[in-house]
Amino acid sequence: MAQEQGSGPLATLPRDFREHLVEDDDNFEDATEEPPEAHRDLQMALADCQLAIRRFFNNDLEGAMGVMKVWSSTSLYHSLGVSIFEFIPAVLTLDSAQVARAMAALKQTQTLCQHRRRTYTLVEALGTMMRKTNYMSMSDEQAHAELCSAESTLLQAALCILDGEDLAGFLRATIKIKSSYNIYKECSRILEKKPWESEMSRMHFQSGVRLGLATFSIMIAMLPPRLVTLLEFVGFSGDKEAGLAELQAGAREPGLRGVLCELTLLAYHLVVSHFAGATPDFDLCQRILETQLKVYPEGVWFLLFEGRLQLLRGRCALAAATYLRAADTPHLWRQLRHLCYWELMWANAMMMDWRGAAGFAGRLIEESSWSRTVYSYAKAALLLQLGEKGTPAERRQAADLLKAAPLYRQRIAGKSLPMEKWVSRRCERYAVQGGRLLLPAIELLCLWNMLPALSGDAAAVHSMLKQIEVTDERLDREENLWPSALEGDNRALLAYLRGCCLVVLGVPRLALHHLDHVVRLKEKIKEDSFLVPYALVEAAMCHHSLGEVDRAVNILQDTRKRYSNYSLESRLLFRIHSKLQIVRENPPTPGGSKDSPDFARPPSRQPGRAEHPQAVA
Q: Model's pTM, two decimal places?
């Protein structure tokens, strides 16, 4: 489709002059060269994309890439498709060569976008700064060029963050994110005001606009308030409910990106919400998965989310079976198989099959490069959790893993990973405590927010409480074998773990008894200062369940303001933000608690001691 051409360098000035002033030079590389005359018609390109999507979700990755590659040098959507298929393995592997290939493909897509986007003469460009843009003469292809530019710019930003090693890379990513957001906003105006040559073209365009703006809106809304205020100052806006509604609308329509709207909903409810401690919509996820698994019965992406849904519902055996089925998919990307192993590790740990879980952690150590530090610590923790059931060889292996784990630490976007820093401290603790850790696997389950999924399996949680009880008694007997300087840390950890188990069992008053004890031990904690704010957040939700809404809000707000510079801080700040929304929007369920003396121990025998069962691995 021919484009209106200007003359000289001003010919490439885009519609919104200010938006493109913030884009970096990469977006304009070779923009003055004329593209080849032969290119795929827009409607045919959209049809090819639908074919590639069907092949992709049917696990035919090579077939999907083959459809896109043929016209990738001249067609917007084919080029974007190739870029996405290069982007996914780049994110999964973090391999520098693959990241470079993805970035090169995205630059080519951006070059095509610049050629296809509407161009302006000097007079027209100045006119757009003084009056509203006229969309009446914009072609469908020019509109889709704007949308493809927004998408490819956002993908470039993600790669800059993942591959950046310094502040400059992060700043470039920030500029690209803002540019992408501005283009998406422009696309929403195009959708509203432009007359469309084809209803099919409008429908595909609308699904892309909904996907982009809704994702931005949800992610911004989930950030801590101070950051949201800053982002709103520079032009961003966030509304989680509106974003989710837009994604659901996009998922119901037959647009090209409808299935991506569904995947985004699944990712939000089953991954992001779980990480942030928000309330997921399991019923919505179930409906999406039932529909898509009829279309793609062996589609590995939907099988992964099916396993995740089962896992978070506490159906660990079913989740494990689903993940094993997904892992056996032929020609699967190795990194997706590693994701199956990661989830299988948690599923087995939640069933307290510590040895089985350690086996999957071992596979990750051998095959995956995501975080060998975390994998090594996880396997060691699971082996140590075996306690007396572990063999001497397993104990030696755990010691070797804890010695080696800190050596594999890595940096992403120039930053150390918080969990890897925490793991390194736990490895040091193991050495200081003479080759022992307290309940390392149960601690991991707690920090990764896996315990709430066991709320329907009281027997499993009681079994964990029994392990804590036995370990507490053993710790009392062997008190002289533990460093006295770390007694406050160890007692606080065990109080926190027992409190979390009691929260899962639905006995908030007894849980508060132990969580409050963590706070009372604050002055005696030397290293694990993170336990205090983490315990306070759990305590706040106990007060909420007891109907003490104002007190819950005050505790959460006070925790956010008073505590800083502790391990895994960002993780907890996200959860505090989500918990505040839950407390304010959801009144507690009427009815008394299940508190019973059977759940608690008598107060500890010595002042300053936690009255909680504890476990030694």
A: 0.86
